[in-house]
Amino acid sequence: MRVNTKFDRPDPALVEQLARFSSATIHEAQGRLGALSSALKPVDPAMSLCGPAFTVRCAPRDNLMLQVAIAHAQPGDVVVVSAGEYAEAGSFGDVLANACQAKGLAGLVTDTGVRDTAELRKLGFPVFSYSVSIKGTVKETVGPLAEPIQIGGELVRPGDVIRGDADGLVVVRREDLAYAIEQARKREEAEAAYIAAYRSGRSVIEVSNLAGVLEAKGLVIEG
Question: What is the pLDDT of residues 193-210, one digit of tens each?
Answer without folding.
Answer: 999 999 999 999 999 999
